[in-house]
Amino acid sequence: MKAKEIQELISFIAESGLAEVNIETDEFKLAVKRQSDAALQAVHVVEKTVAAPMQMPVVTPAVTPVVATATSVAAAPAAGKDESKYKTIKSPMIGTFYRSANPESPVFVQVGDQVKAGQTVCIVEAMKLFNEIDTDLSGTIVKVLVENASPVEYDQPLFLIDPA
């Protein structure tokens, strides 16, 4: 893997918002971990043919502001209520979150929709596989916590649901 490819990979990971990525092949081992303050990333690359590890320069990722979606703005009045009674629907895997099956299709669920256990609420794409995410809860969608087409991590909350 060339230095330019590594830098492009670091930039992609910085933009994705992931906290940690580990990649290992027969030729190299790459670990990227974001520090807790999200100010720096450290990268260590070890070539199997090289005896000493090669240290890559520290890269400072660009800080991107979080933009509220229309659905989260619409849910703002409901979010002011006691949120402790709400349950969360979490991502079962790392991947890319999609609210609909394709750009032309309507979203699976919107704020205010009633959902039943077993109903598909979104899709998480992982390794070119589109996995339908079903809820195990019944209730009303109160808030969408993730923007469409954004990366999600394992166990990351996706939706707030009022089980009442």
What does this protein look like?
The chain has 164 residues and is mainly beta. The protein folds into two domains: 3-55, no CATH class; 70-162, RNA polymerase II/Efflux pump adaptor protein, barrel-sandwich hybrid domain (OB fold (Dihydrolipoamide Acetyltransferase, E2P), Beta Barrel), CATH 2.40.50. 14% of the residues lie in helices and 36% in strands. The protein is built from three helices and twelve strands. It has helices at residues 3-16, 70-74, 76-79; strands at residues 20-24, 28-34, 41-47, 54-55, 87-90, 95-98, 114-115, 120-126, 129-134, 139-144, 150-152, 157-162. It is elongated and about 55 Å long. The model is unreliable at 36-52 and 59-80 (pLDDT under 50).
Q: Main traits of this protein?
A:
single chain, mainly beta, OB fold (Dihydrolipoamide Acetyltransferase, E2P), 2 domains, 4-stranded antiparallel beta sheet, 12 strands, 14% helix, elongated
